[in-house]
């Protein structure tokens, strides 16, 4: 998905997500540079409604590193 959906404008940021049985992880990237500008991580077991962003939480650090690596691999294959 992307942020700033005005039809006449280019988006400001694009969100890329990975969902596993344990989490949903989203990186928001600057549309022009591709730099990560925000991260979201939701614990599917403790928070199935995805109300509490736990990106950076120590208890999910290993899981977050794994999904971040998965996204990096996807970007390296697509050149973005």
Commentary on this structure:
It is built from one helix and four strands, in the order E-E-E-E-H. The chain has one helix at 61-78, and strands at residues 2-3, 13-19, 23-30, 36-43. The protein has one domain (2-78): 2-Layer Sandwich (Arylsulfatase, C-terminal domain), CATH 3.30.1120. With 80 residues, the chain is of the alpha+beta class. The mean pLDDT is 88. Strands 1-2-3-4 form a four-stranded antiparallel β-sheet, covered by helices on one side. The radius of gyration is 13 Å and the shape is globular.
Secondary structure: elements and pairs:
Layout: E1 2-3, E2 13-19, E3 23-30, E4 36-43, H1 61-78
Antiparallel strand pairs: 1-2, 2-3, 3-4
> Biggest β-sheet: count, sense, barrel?
4 strands, antiparallel
Write down how many β-strands occur, each being a DSSP E stretch of 2 or more residues.
Answer: 4
SSE order: EEEEH
Overall domain count: 1
CATH class: Alpha Beta
How far is the first residue's CA from the last residue's CA?
16 Å
Assign the CATH topology: Arylsulfatase, C-terminal domain
Structural class call reads alpha+beta
- What overall form do the CA principal axes indicate? globular
| pLDDT < 50 stretches | none
Counted by DSSP, the helix tally is 1
Sheet-strand content, in percent, reads 25-35%
Biggest sheet strand line-up: 1-2-3-4
Q: How large, in whole angstroms, is the Cα Rg?
A: 13 Å
Mean of all residue-level pLDDT scores? 88
Based on the structure given, which CATH architecture is correct? 2-Layer Sandwich
What share of the residues lie within helices?
A: 10-25%
């Amino acid at each position: 998905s992307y942020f700033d959906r005005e039809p006449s404008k280019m988006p400001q940021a694009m969100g890329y997500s990975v969902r596993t049985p344990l989490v949903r992880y989203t990186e928001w990237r600057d549309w022009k540079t591709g730099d990560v500008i925000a991260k979201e991580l939701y614990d599917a077991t403790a928070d199935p409604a995805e109300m509490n962003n736990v990106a950076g939480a120590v208890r999910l650090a290993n899981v977050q590193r794994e999904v971040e690596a998965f996204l990096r691999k996807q970007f390296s294959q697509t050149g973005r």
